[in-house]
Amino acid sequence: MEDYEVEHEFPGLGHRTMCLNARKVFYKGGAGTTILLGIEDVTAQRLLAVEKDDLLRQKDVLLDELQHRVANSLQIIASIIMMKSRAVNSDETRRHLQDAHKRVMSVATMPQYLHASAARGGGAIDVVPYLTKLCEAIAHSMISDDRPISIKVTGEDGSATSKQAESIGLIVTELVMNALKHAFPGDKTAGHIIVGYETAGSDWKLSVSDDGIGKPDGVFAQPKSGLGTGIVKALSQQLKAKVETESGHGGTTVSVTHATFATKEDKAAEALRQAS
Fold first, then answer.
1. Could you tell me the residue ranges of all domains in the chain?
2. What is the second-level CATH architecture of the domain 124-276?
3. What pTM was computed for the model?
4. pLDDT tens-digit series, residues 195-211
């Protein structure tokens, strides 16, 4: 018998929880076996475990309340920014305020998707479903009904911690916003944005591609860049990932690669090279 717990009301001691362990003891000469029984009072440990579970539940409730309050506050801030953007006379100031409004809204809506995904996955975030929900929210808030631009998420199964998923979501938000702002000039320009997520063991690769007018390669390696580019670079460094851009007449692709990830095509090419 191993780690068998018994609860009992003992005279003079009260209710206690005892952990029992038993083993057979054998003797030379064929004598009968003896049972060696160990009894440990684990009442205090079990009470501490119950208190710990209660504290963890309280922490989750407080965290949910905090996230709810932060999201509401960000919604109020976004509304104030939008009101100010409508009141200013400068077109440049209005554009900056509208960009700020979109960023605040993306941060405000992100916790609800993270919380829902974590609740289903027991703490881990399923990245592709999370990015799908996030991009649907981005398209709803940033693409007007008469603008023929679509956002699609493709990828494989993969999970991340809540903190990692939040950084990945912010990167996607910035890259999609950059594509909407720069890749498709004119409100009537049609286009497609594809957000891809691939995994290889613990490594992953995130890509955001568009079929727009393109922009210079290596823009994320330039010492001076815009706010969105700076955010993507900083978040990628936190994730220990590198950022690369490829641009041409067919559009632009920005890739964020974690560690030594290699695509399936790269692996197939390497295997073919070794075989030959």
1. 4-41, 58-122, 124-276
2. 2-Layer Sandwich (3.30)
3. 0.59
4. 999 988 888 999 999 98
